[in-house]
């Protein structure tokens, strides 16, 4: 069964709570898109709310993310050099973390960071790396042994929902599946009823669904459709 992960891109904590409430009883993992206004043009929660009381309480472990006791959270970090704040994302409640390869700058230093993550942390947090459609999968060869999954972007411009589908992602998925048969492949960006069958056929294990899911009249049935592929 294909794993379906709702993607949420919000400006503030209350909007985060509202969006999560739509799927909390249906899925086990939600992706929170984090945009820094640098690597991508937009800025989202929690970057724009670090002085917000809710964020402070989460970091102080006085409360958790909305519905934390029912869900795991995947942080998709469209953030420049996000690995330098790894501890911060963990403290905010991430169970999975996605770093964007193009945002990490020095790949050698990024590889060194991945190698330095201790065994206890690796047992509690899955680490993935996202690549754009313009990035060759050859760029992943030195870090594949140190990550749990690859996230292929299905759009050309990260940080927005509702972007047009970039067909180059199909070849990315096929190449990854051929080169690394056991790796988990996630796809994020323009995943909908039309593109999802093509992505799964190419070899994707996970579908990260944003606007196609949140705009659905029946979220539960839409998720079931994606899972059945």
Description:
There is one protein chain. Helices cover 31% and strands 21% of the residues. The termini are close together. The protein is globular, with a radius of gyration of 17 Å. It has 229 residues and is an alpha/beta fold. The mean pLDDT is 94. The protein has an eight-stranded parallel β-barrel with strand order 1-2-3-4-5-6-7-8, surrounded by four helices. The chain has helices at residues 13-21, 53-59, 86-91, 107-116, 119-124, 168-179, 196-202, 211-214, 219-228, and strands at 3-8, 29-35, 72-78, 94-100, 126-131, 149-153, 184-188, 206-209. The longest helix has 12 residues, at 168-179.
Keywords:
alpha/beta; 9 helices; 21% strand
Shape: globular
Please describe the biggest sheet, giving its number of strands, its sense, and whether it closes into a barrel.
8 strands, parallel, barrel
Considering DSSP H and I runs of 4 or more, what fraction of the residues is helical? Answer: 25-40%
| Neighbour order of strands in the largest sheet | 1-2-3-4-5-6-7-8
Quaternary structure of the protein? single chain
* Number of DSSP-assigned strands: 8
Number of helices in the DSSP assignment? 9
Alpha-carbon distance between the two ends: 7 Å
Measured on Cα atoms, how large is the radius of gyration?
Answer: 17 Å
Q: Structural class of the secondary structure composition?
A: alpha/beta
- Poorly predicted segments: none
Look at the structure and give the mean pLDDT: 94
**What is the string of SSEs from the N terminus onward?**
EHEHEHEHHEEHEHEHH
Beta-strand content estimate: 15-25%
In short:
By secondary structure, the protein is α/β, with parallel strands linked by helices. It has helices at 13-21, 53-59, 86-91, 107-116, 119-124, 168-179, 196-202, 211-214, 219-228; strands spanning 3-8, 29-35, 72-78, 94-100, 126-131, 149-153, 184-188, 206-209. The longest helix has 12 residues, at 168-179.
């Amino acid at each position: 069964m294909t794993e379906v992960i709702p993607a949420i891109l919000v400006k503030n904590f209350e909007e985060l709570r509202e969006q999560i409430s739509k799927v909390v009883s249906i899925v086990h993992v939600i992706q929170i898109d984090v945009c820094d206004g640098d690597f991508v043009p937009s800025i989202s929660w929690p970057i724009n709310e670090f002085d917000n009381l809710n964020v402070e309480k989460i970091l102080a472990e006085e409360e958790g993310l909305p519905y934390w006791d029912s869900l795991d959270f995947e942080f998709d970090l469209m953030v420049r050099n996000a690995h330098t704040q790894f501890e911060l994302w963990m403290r905010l409640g991430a169970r999975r973390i996605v770093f964007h390869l193009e945002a990490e700058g020095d790949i050698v230093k990024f590889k060194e960071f991945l190698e330095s993550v201790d065994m206890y942390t690796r047992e509690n947090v899955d680490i993935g790396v996202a690549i754009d459609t313009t990035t060759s999968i050859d760029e992943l060869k030195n870090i594949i042994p140190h990550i749990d999954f690859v996230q292929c972007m299905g759009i050309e411009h990260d940080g927005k929902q509702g972007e047009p589908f970039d067909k180059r992602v199909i070849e990315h998925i096929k190449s990854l599946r051929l080169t690394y048969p056991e790796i988990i492949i996630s796809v994020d960006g323009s995943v909908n009823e039309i593109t999802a069958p093509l992505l799964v056929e190419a070899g994707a294990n996970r579908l990260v669904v944003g606007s196609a899911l949140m705009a659905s009249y029946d979220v539960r049935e839409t998720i079931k459709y994606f899972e059945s592929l």
